[in-house]
Every structure is written in structure tokens, then in C-alpha cells.
């Protein structure tokens, strides 16, 4: 097989990259280990920054998002006895949209179908080769046969466990493992709030998010190593009710349809390029989900990468490709800081001094317009070429 850009991974980064390349007249083939059904049903992120929404709209992907996505003007910050609203639209003139990663992935899948995109699902043994040459290639097996995919460029969009990251020799890496995880649930019940609630509580952080008018997404801070089997539905709802407790407000409980434990980690690998291999999305960086940045960073990476690769393979102009890694990493580190800051401000530890500092910081964010604006600007999202 031969194409201009070989993409490893059909998550949001890989699918959107192939879409943007196609609009720039560049061919690509995507290879993916999982089945299409699995990829489209994978429950993950759900908050789209303003820049992500604008980019999807500008590239013909906004129709269902505009119809079914829910625009949120801000978030609530809570600690025992108090809940405060931060209005991003008022503070920084930007908002976010609640629209599940599952839906973004389905929209991208349909757009790729319409364009006749080649996506090879259910491959195994993916490997990348000859990256220091102008003729890199990818190999994989499908139905027991080994296939070679030749290309001008290879892009690793294969997430945190894919092989592309390891193909960069001697990278610099930074990692922070947090001493807690999230127990996340999806429940068939109307959200009890119009916008997300981020709650600090001595028992641990809790987040009330949502996916639609009838589906709620909620998270509880739990210790690392937590086994979901130890958390019955009753135990989950009673912990959530305690952490979100506020006079005059009740949490609606309902049937839980999905439960999983998500460890919290920050990770950055640089550079995001080696020869003719480029990395994008979770393949190069991971953020804890507290700042809702993972999916948005993946989108921002490929928004920078698509024009860079189009210029490289179409016009043999490497100017943007040469600055891609530095350009992307500027935003990656800003979002890494924001995600770390939100995480450490809201998750409780056993240290009572830390708890006092967190409460002082939360109070500062809701009482100082300058502090509120800083959170709003980062949460609603910086421009792509920040
Ligand atoms: C379990 C989990 C839960 C999350 N929950 C949240 C959340 O609640 N809120 C939030 O904001 N963010 C969340 N995130 C983060 C967000 O979903 C990611 O940042 C986003 O998916 C990044 O997109 P991506 O395309 O870079 O990577 P991915 O979505 O991981 O896509 C990578 C793709 O590469 C494929 N792949 C892997 N190895 C190979 C291979 N060898 N060959 C071919 N293909 C391969 C994978 O199957 C996958 O389809 C979560 C992430 C994870 C992992």
C-alpha cells in the first residue's frame, strides 16, 4: 500500500488529522488496532473548548454538534456550604460545549466515509520504520497477513500506549503520577445541574458533568488501586450526595450504565517529531482530566500539524513542519500547568495544611475577578496558535 501520510491510530487526533489533510488535498491511510464499533463507543472526554468547536465548525463538522451539543457559559466551584458560578462568557467572552468524545468520533467517522477514506481497523503488530529517510513506512498484520504501508510521512496518533512514542530516540520526558484516581460513572438520569460542578470536599473531590438531557457523568476521587467491584451503586450515590451536599439542592440518582477507574497522570515527551515521524495527541502528552484538556490538546496538535504536513508533502516546504514540535509544545505545557493546577487545587490529601491552602485558593478564584478570569481563559481555551 502507498499513501502520502500514514496515520497510526483512529482516535480523535488521527481521524481529525486525516479529515484536515483531505481538505488540503493530501491523501492519508489510518491503521487502528481496535474495531470501529469499539473506537466509537469508548467513553472518555466530553468538554470541547471554544477553539475546538470553531475548528470543527469551520471544517464541516459542526452540524450535529450545533444541534445536539450544549453550550455552557461556565462552571460551578463548590466547597462545603458554598457553591459559586464562574461565568466564562462574561469574564472572557468565550464558552465551552458539552459534546461527548464518542459523538466527535462518530461525526469524524461519517465524514471520512463520505470522503472515501481508507481506515484499516483491527490490525496487530503495528511498527514504524525508516523514519530518518524520505521513505518511511508502517507495517502491520491483518487477518494473519503482513502489510507494508509506504508513505512520505508517518504520524503517531496512537495514544498513550501505542508504539510511535517509543520510536523517538532519546526523548526528554516528564511525568507526575498523582496519588489518587477518578471513579467515573455514566447514569441514565437527568443532570441535577445546568453546568458542571467541581466540588472540593474533605472526603475527596467530586465532579458532576453530563452527556445529554437524560445522561449524567459523575466522578469521585478515590485512592489509587481502587477496585470498581468495591463500589456498589448505592455506595457511589451516597458518596456523591455527601460530597455535593448543599442546602436546598438534591442530586438525582438513577441507573448506572458504566463504571470505571481512571488513574491521574501528567506526562510530556519532547520533541514531538523525529525525522519523518510526527507525534500528536496522547501519543506525546497526557494530562489529568480535571482541566478537560486531553481531547482539546489532541485537536490543537493536529490543527497545527495538518497545514505543516500539507506544505511538506505537497510543496516540499518544511518551514511549518520544522517548527511544529515547538509550536505544539508551547500550548501543551500551558495546558499541562492548568491541568496540574486544577487537579492539585481540588483533590484532597491527608495534609490539613494543604486543605487550608486549597480553600484559600478556591475562595480567591471566586472573589477576585482577575483570578476568575485566569481560570476562565484557560478552561474555555486559548487560541490554537497560542
Ligand atoms: C480511559 C481514559 C478516560 C479518559 N477520560 C477523560 C475524561 O473523562 N475527560 C477528559 O477531558 N479526557 C479524558 N481522557 C483523555 C482524552 O480522551 C484523550 O486525551 C483523547 O482521547 C486523546 O485523543 P488521541 O486521538 O490522541 O488518543 P486516543 O483517543 O487514545 O486514540 C489513540 C488510538 O490509537 C489506537 N492505537 C493504539 N495503539 C495502536 C497500534 N499499535 N496500532 C494502531 N492503532 C493503535 C488506539 O486504539 C486509539 O484508537 C481520557 C483518556 C483515557 C485513556
From TrEMBL:
Residues 2-339 form the FAD-binding domain. Keywords: FAD, Flavoprotein. It comes from the Bacteria. The keyword Flavoprotein applies. The keyword Flavoprotein applies. Transmembrane segments: none annotated. This is 4-hydroxybenzoate 3-monooxygenase. The lineage of its organism: Bacteria, Bacillati, Actinomycetota, Actinomycetes, Pseudonocardiales.
